Amino acid sequence: MNDSKKTTIASNSGADMDAVVVGAGFAGLYMLYKLREMGLDARVYESGDGVGGTWYWNRYPGARCDVPSFEYSYSFDPRLEQEWDWSELYPSQPEILAYIEHVAQRHDLYRDIVFNTRITTLAYDESQHLWRFVADNGQEKTARFAVLAVGPLSVPVIPDFPGLDSFKGTIVHTGRWPKAGIDVNGKRVAVIGSGSSAIQVSPELAKTADRVFMLQRSPAYSVPSRNRPLTATDILEAKSNYPAIRARAQANRSALGFKTGEQSALEVDDQTREQIYEERWQGGGLAFTGAFHDIFTDTEANKTAGDFVRKKIREMVEDQSIADHLMPETLIGCKRLCVDNGYLPMFNRDNVELVDLRERPIQHLTENSVCVGNDQLPIDVLVLATGFDAITGAQLKMDIAGRNGLQLKDKWQEGPKNYLGLAVEGFPNLFMVSGPGSPAGLANMVTLAEQNVDVISGLIHSTLTSGASAIEALADAETNWVKHVNELASETIYPLANSWYVGANVPGKPRIFMPHLDYPLYRRRCEEVISAGCEGFRLQ
Ligand code: FAD
Ligand code: NAP
Asked: Is the Cβ–Cβ distance between 280 and 312 less than 8 Å?
């Protein structure tokens, strides 16, 4: 987009700025970079007091990425790839946060980011083709374009446990861990949850806490990460191969670097299958469920992978009566696979107690305990690792009104509808990154954020260079997209689980499988739309 300076427009439209971006995580920062590259005047609004998004908020001990550092990083700045040295195979939260802060500094992004400011309302002014937005401090501004980079996992779910308010100890959600940390030394801690966050935080807490009660409703599948420090050779090799690393991600269904096996889990003999799973298990990480091509399309194939993990649980947890309660019963991978650093061995510690909530449900909290079944567990700290209102939560927390006052909440009452995961009919000049209908949550999210931002930039550029004031998804294109996303999902076993992918973790949320399941196909569709001159959009 070297002719992009010509696109400096909206200043003529009477708007306060060309574009407003909501959110300063990986997506929002790159969006700002691209808008500036197009010569546009943009501002980012962020409710936190720093950049980083997920990695700003989730500061719990043990928080780390489960995508290798060389893959979970921006590709748009090749010099950065060469200059930044990752220290571990799977980077920790502090290291990722330092990386994002460095990017913001390096590209002089801070000067256009407004921190400590939550956007509460966005309303489209059809007569002027611009968005009026309001912040929680009452400030009101206008922008020609609005980009929601609000994150697929940024709104914590806090269950309504009876008596929660009466608890006098420390209550913390993993996604709102305080900067100062929480000292659990010698304290009694209850962790509610057994998803990725619980699995990461609990082994760390168990190292110093007097006692850790693991309050588990559904046993989860977890695979060891095999995290390790990167050697000088690892780093040199990655730096010489970045184009290949990125190309591998672009070709993978989840935008990850591993290769999915070409065989069916059911076509090999038992010994070969066992050996292949063992190799993946020893290799560590998310590649485990890539062992065979049909793990996500055939329940029998899936069961072989689940059985392997159940066998590992038996081997790794010494007390078999505890192991019994840790056995996942669902299909593997249909809830996001967890990747851990010492989760199962943690149950061999004397100070860790597994509480199976299926047998002893949470009754209520008192000022110093959590009551499960007929038991009262005395605690000082309550950790809610209870997840997020995923993929649509942050958009729907705002009041967003499109043409004719149409509310996004109303439009999405029966489930989210949009085109390419990026744009909604009735909401011109509004885009979302990692929204429903994109591979949000299933793909490497930095790769997806960059791809989404590039497409949004292309759409904005096309709008401006065509002399149009607004771009809007067409109703037919939207309907067909939703159908396409659902069809892809229905060819798999993903929708069978009560996961956050289908909104099952939030009471009252419509049950719809939200993510697009094939990143390379998704990317190609987006490229075709751009090269066909914004096919499926109306420019006006
Ligand atoms: P976010 O990083 O969530 O940033 C969104 C920002 O928008 C937040 O800072 C939020 O405060 C702000 N915001 C939201 N609403 C408003 C508003 N109304 N006004 C102002 N500001 C607002 N993905 C992977 O691919 N691999 C991983 O290993 C991985 N690990 C994860 C670990 C954890 C603990 C969590 C919670 C998520 C993980 N994810 C992972 C997903 C992760 O969310 C994405 O990888 C990525 O960081 C999302 O970037 P983003 O910029 O789209 O959103
Ligand atoms: P999650 O996967 O949604 O897990 C939430 C956990 O809380 C589940 O075990 C759930 O049980 C439990 N829970 C929720 N409400 C409960 C209630 N009322 N009573 C008892 N238990 C309750 O959330 P998460 O662990 O924060 O992870 C969310 C996503 O963030 C992950 O899937 C992943 O994409 C990302 N993440 C990644 C990493 C990483 O390794 N890089 C780390 C953390 C998060 P049920 O299953 O029974 O509902």
From this structure: no
- Cβ atoms within 10 Å of 147's Cβ, excluding its own: 30
Of 529 and 6, more confident: 529
Residues lining ligand 2, Cβ inside 6 A = 65-66, 153, 159, 174, 192-198, 200, 217-218, 336, 339, 357, 362, 385-388, 441, 500, 505
Ligand 2, atom nearest to 500 Cα: 3
Distances 454 to 225, 522, 523 between C-alpha atoms, Å: 31, 13, 11
- Dmax (CA) for the chain in angstroms is 71
* pLDDT tens-digit series, residues 101-128: 999 999 999 999 999 999 999 999 999 9
Distance CA 524, CA 253 (A): 12
What's the helix, strand, coil split of the chain in %, to 5?
35, 20, 45
- Residue 349: φ, ψ to 5°: -85, 145
Q: Tell me the ligand closest to 452's alpha carbon.
A: 1
Encode pLDDT of 4-37 as tens digits.
Answer: 444 555 456 789 999 999 999 999 999 999 999 9
Q: Best mutation site among 172, 194, 196 for ligand 2, i.e. most ligand atoms within 8 A of its Cβ?
A: 196
The pair of structure tokens assigned to 300 is 């029998």
